Amino acid sequence: MTNQQTLDDLNYATALAKSGSEAPLVGGPVGLMWGILISVTLLAHWGIVSGTLAIEPQYLWALWIGFSALGGFGSAILGKKIATKPGVQSMANRVEHAVWSMFTLMLACLWVGIVISMLLGMGSVALFDLVPIVGFAGQGLAYGVTAKISHHKWLAWASGAAFLASMMCLPAFGQPVLYLIAAIATVFTVVVPSLKTIGFEHASQ
Amino acid sequence: MPANKDVQTNVGEGSVMQSNVGDIDEVIHGRLRLGIMAYLSAVNPASFPELLAKTGSSNGNLSTHLSKLEAAGYVRQEKGYAGKRPQTLVHLTVPGRRAWITYLEAMKELLGS
After folding, report:
1. Which of A96, A159, A166, B8 fits a disulfide with A137 by CB distance 3.0 to 4.6 angstroms?
2. Is the interface score ipTM higher than 0.90?
3. Interchain pair A91, B42: CB under 8 A
4. Considering the domain boundaries, does residue A7 fall inside one?
5. Is residue A14 domain-resident?
6. How many domains does chain A have?
7. If you measure CA to CA, which chain B residue comes closest to A93?
8. What is the pLDDT of residues A143-193, one digit of tens each?
9. Residue A132: closest CA among A174, A177, A179
10. Residue B20 has pLDDT above 60, yes or no
């Protein structure tokens, strides 16, 4: 084998290794689905608790159960599609999947904890206001880790926006306006970054 | 497995060096197998269609070379299903990753960089 052949083969291998390590993030469609769903649900929540919508607050349970069911169904469908995309097992995609799975688990634990404290008569409905506040902080963390691994600087901006949203929600704790702030913030912290991820994925194909 | 023999290797224009290439792993040292190992070093596991698309190889050719890598213990092929469709996932094994790093270091030394 000549030196030139060897170099050609090594260049070919390098190009393949690069295409793998620089594989785009593939979770954009799932993020977009959740972003739209969360924004609409938070807006409906605000409409109900503020009296803007003529719906009794006891139907909030139905709203959030519907949200979970729709989100779970959508994730399962989109997850199947994503599983066959090239580069889905790259380091960045594996880290992204892991941090968002942990994020979901964290919010689920918080939610169950609140329900238990209410069942024991030790908490109030206001405790649910913690979910968006902690949720935005968790988003900031998830985006920050993904930005570091994927080298996408714009994800660091999404991380900063999510931390800012968490700070902005805290002073509104216990007030209906918290859910309006959260609904608007979700557009900037989930919908926009997900659209950007999808755009980046399409551009790299 | 690593070949342990002396071969002539061109190291530059007009020059030929007698090199001991005992560390050059001949299982990896082929264009397609090199490509497979390189891609799996970044995306692990990768599906068979994904490797086909990335390497630009034919179905039969890729199968043959994957079998050689599997026989050396460098990759593991996992047959399963993605939904109702059959799917083959190719994993880079721990000895495979080790062999890949050794191969790259040996090539770097051989090419004098």
Report:
1. A166
2. no
3. yes
4. no
5. no
6. 1
7. B43
8. 999 999 998 889 999 999 999 999 999 999 999 999 999 999 999 999 999
9. A179
10. no
